[in-house]
Amino acid sequence: xxxxxxxxxxxxxxxxxxxxxxxxxxxxxxxxxxxxxxxxxxxxxxxxxxxxxxxxxxxxxxxxxxxxxxxxxxxxxxxxxxxxxxxxxxxxxxxxxxxxxxxxxxxxxxxxxxxxxxxxxxxxxxxxxxxxxxxxxxxxxxxxxxxxxxxxxxxxxxxxxxxxxxxxxxxxxxxxxxxxxxxxxxxxxxxxxxxxxxxxxxxxxxxxxxxxxxxxxxxxxxxxxxxxxxxxxxxxxxxxxxxxxxxxxxxxxxxxxxxxxxxxxxx
Length: 267
Ligand SMILES: [Ca+2]
Ligand SMILES: [Ca+2]
Description:
Radius of gyration: 19 Å
Pfam family, one: PAN_1
InterPro entries: C-type_lectin-like, C-type_lectin-like/link_sf, C-type_lectin/snaclec_domain, CTDL_fold, Pan_app
Domain Apple: 161-256
Shape: globular
CATH superfamily of the largest domain: Mannose-Binding Protein A, subunit A
Domain C-type lectin: 31-149
Structural class: mainly beta
Bound molecules: calcium ion
Largest sheet: 10 strands, mixed
Helix content: under 10%
Distance between the termini: 27 Å
CATH class of the largest domain: Alpha Beta
Protein name: C-type lectin domain-containing protein
Order of helices and strands: EEEEHEHEEEEEEEEHEEEE
């Protein structure tokens, strides 16, 4: 199935070898209690890991990370017959160099690093995100490599999205959308604002973010009783180091800001 998506043509890959059981939407493949889809950006590679993440967000979920050898084996079965070369995973060491965690903040239970990886190759300012190999000279299928988060020099054109079986559709009007965020107190994401707006509560700020597929985190500040500032960010701390505990904004003192980022749901 071809889907026009802004300036990219995104190919949703169906595998004829997989039986889609009840619980996964059309085009999604089941494994365990989860559904997976491989997205291939056909017209151009993903700009960066955020671009790949947004591709999954448009499908109501987020990039996958890999928890076990069995899951890795399953994911590799999605690659044959496609033009995918390398695929972003939801794993990063942006918060602490050489300490990789998944985007939900959990530790790695399984890794499959290729030879000499991760090497934090310095040419583009280090490498804090992770891709899995399908087709790359000198690499084995399934090798993991660390890659830059915010620049894609390797022509990474794949994204694997994952969601729990029977997950209800994303409903930003539901109260449960608050569960999609977690808080980092007294912190502020610098230089990644999409826009800033006054809203009465932090819940309203989260709601705005959850309704905007380009929004990955928010800063919330209550300056005065009648002046509340909500900043929607295009990045999260998991792919950017621009999180600071010093607001750096004139007129605001430390501790007034609260940073919330969208958490991964269900896995
Ligand atoms: Ca790194
Ligand atoms: Ca590397």
